[in-house]
Each structure stands twice: as C-alpha cells, then as structure tokens.
Request: fold
Amino acid sequence: MYDNLQALGIDQLDKISGYKLTTEKDRDVLKIIFRPERGHVLKHTQRFIYPRQHKLVTVDSGTHRKLHMTEISPALRYVIEELDQIACH
Reply:
C-alpha cells in the first residue's frame, strides 16, 4: 500500500512518528523520524535527499519575460502523501 516508502527501504511503517522537510540550495532534505525502541532514549531518523525540479515560467506574455523557479520533485511529493496518510492514522 505504501509503495514509495517501501522503495526507500522503510519497512517499519508503524514506527514512524513524523517527518521534517527542509530545503537546502537546490535540494530538498526529508528526515523521517521513528519512535524510540524499547530501552533507548534517542529517536532513530533516516535522511533522504531529493534534487529540486527547475522550470522556466513565463511571467509576462507581452514581453515574454521568463522567471526561473524550482519546485518539489514528484517522487518526493508521493512519499510525503504516504507519510501524511500514516500520520493521520
């Protein structure tokens, strides 16, 4: 059911407690946070890095002025959707 998370090698979906998404330069950094194991104090995390997509967008059709923009990768978007589904349960 969570094919994108399993493709990342995450098998313990029930132990996910949350995630954090940050942007650094031309990449997005996803940190998945797991609940601590019994007897451990610190939480376990896994970090994944995705490059941002680059686009040229027409801002003014009269002057044909274009603007360079970046956006989140589609693969990362699917992973975040699955993480949101897990967080809602």
The mean pLDDT is 90.
